[in-house]
Specification:
The protein is an alpha+beta fold. Helix content is 17%, strand content 29%. It has a single domain, classed as Trypsin-like serine proteases (Thrombin, subunit H), CATH 2.40.10. 35% of the residues are buried.
């Protein structure tokens, strides 16, 4: 057989190259963050309300959630309904409170998220089968990204940094739907401290070496120690408060926190009883603004149409579970079911992890760089009315970041909705 003419060979080569490039782009799209046109949430009016009583008690679990099939039967909320659900209350550090009504613009340009209607029955449990949680006990890892974005809320929940001084958490960690929790009046956020080298004769983060200390440091350190111990600064025991070597060694391994006061808290009206008509779980999120920004890297928000359609379909989150006090717990799992506002999964978790930021990792558009973004807030164990007939099933549930919720949270963080037009 003689040589193939270039005029015949060239179209074949081009066709193969184009087909390969198209296939590569299709695969690449599955691993790339989608770009969303999001609506604009704008402040309409703010009025002062009476100060809350701060009399509510923390909830162990939420019941009455309208599940997948239940939500499918509900009418699509009108613009007026959405504006009422997205209006919000702000509670300030001094205990005062305001209510802000909002307007929503550009709603028709937002693409609806996909729904999935399959269901399964589950026994009541928060750890499914083998416990697959990982304890991040080494500070070398727990104080490094992405674990360092996880924070502890003084009411007993977890949260995630979404800006230099804003924390995203679950609304039920602050408010039970009727009133604010009794611990929310003096709300604080704890950031894991990096390991200090003080006492080893060398300089390092958190220490100046050779026992040198700036004027005024003693009082500051005493305050931090009291906060790390829950306010108990007394040392009881032999030797005038001195601890044994083994006890000091054991305590040095425990994580310690830098606590920062919360300046203000914002919660969507959709979380309040009697407003969302069974959809309160969809609005189980809140944003806390800190008085002082910790020097810790934060994680951006992201929006995806479906978690189950992603490669592996896995989600990740870290929190401070109650059954392993003082330790940062990491886990990942696959999402089993999803609706337009909730993610139903069997991620092993315990109370204390509520409010954790649920994230995944995808490529930045047009780049080869991978980036983690928060796509939801872990709400916790819930009883769900799956079929709308009153029969309750239990799941571990997360609230997903939709374009609408992205617009609202972004507005809370930036104070300017013009910075929140694309997710």
């Amino acid at each position: 057989m003689g040589p193939i003419p270039l005029c015949v060979l060239l179209p074949v080569v081009l066709a193969v190259t184009v087909a390969a490039a198209a296939e590569e782009n299709a695969v690449d799209d599955e691993y790339t963050w989608p770009q969303w046109k999001v609506p604009l949430v704008r402040k309409r009016r703010t009025v002062h309300l009476s100060s809350p009583d701060f009399s509510a008690h923390p909830q162990t679990e939420i019941s009455g959630t309208c599940g997948i099939e239940c939500q499918r039967r509900l009418p699509t909320p009108s613009l007026d309904d959405l504006e009422q659900l997205l209006s919000y209350e702000t509670v300030y550090e001094n205990g005062t409170r305001t209510y802000t009504s909002v307007s929503v613009q550009g709603l028709n340009e937002v693409t609806a998220l996909s729904r999935n209607s399959s269901t399964r029955s589950r026994r009541k449990r928060e750890v499914y089968g083998t416990d697959t949680r990982f304890t991040i006990s080494d500070k070398q890892f727990s104080t490094k990204y992405p674990f360092s974005t996880t924070v502890k809320i003084s009411t007993g929940c977890s949260g995630v940094l979404v800006s230099p001084k804003h924390v995203l958490t679950a609304a039920h960690c602050i408010h039970d739907g009727k009133d604010y929790l009794n611990g929310a009046q003096k709300l604080r956020v704890g950031i894991l401290k990096e390991k200090s080298r003080r006492g080893k004769g060398g300089k390092g983060k958190g220490g100046r070496g050779k026992g040198k200390r700036r004027k005024g440091d003693k009082g500051k350190e005493d305050d931090e120690e009291k906060e790390d111990q829950g306010g108990k600064g007394e040392n009881k025991g032999k030797g005038k408060g001195r601890k044994s070597r083994s006890r000091r060694s054991a305590e040095s391994e425990k994580p310690s926190f830098r606590w920062t006061r919360v300046k203000q808290t914002q919660i969507p009206k959709g979380w309040f009883k009697g407003v969302a008509d069974g959809l309160a779980a969809d609005y189980d999120y809140a944003v806390l603004e800190l008085k002082k920004a910790p020097k810790v890297k934060f994680m951006d928000l992201g929006v995806i149409p479906s978690v189950k359609k992603l490669p592996a379909g896995r989600i990740h989150f870290s929190g401070f579970d109650d059954d392993r006090p003082g330790n940062l717990i990491y886990r990942f799992c696959s999402v089993s079911e999803e609706s337009s506002d909730l993610l139903y999964q069997y991620c092993d978790a315990k109370p204390g992890s509520s409010g954790s930021g649920v994230y995944i990792r995808l490529k930045e558009p047009g780049k080869k760089k991978w980036k983690r973004k928060i796509i939801g807030i872990f709400s916790g164990h819930q009883w769900v009315d799956v079929n709308g007939n009153g029969n309750q099933q239990d799941y571990n549930v997360a609230v997903r970041i939709t374009p609408m919720k992205y617009a609202q949270i972004c507005y809370w963080v930036h104070g300017d909705s013009s910075e929140c037009q694309v997710a």
